[in-house]
Amino acid sequence: MEVRAADLVKLAPFVDWPTTSFAGPADPFAICVVGKDPFGPVLDHLSAGQSLGGRPVVVRRIPQAARGSGCQIMYLGGAAGPGGQEVKEALAAVRGTPVLTVTGGLGAPGIVDFVLAQGHERFRIDDQAAAENGLAISPKLLALALSVRARAGSRP
Question: Which residues, in sequence order, are bridge partners of residue 14?
Answer without folding.
Answer: none
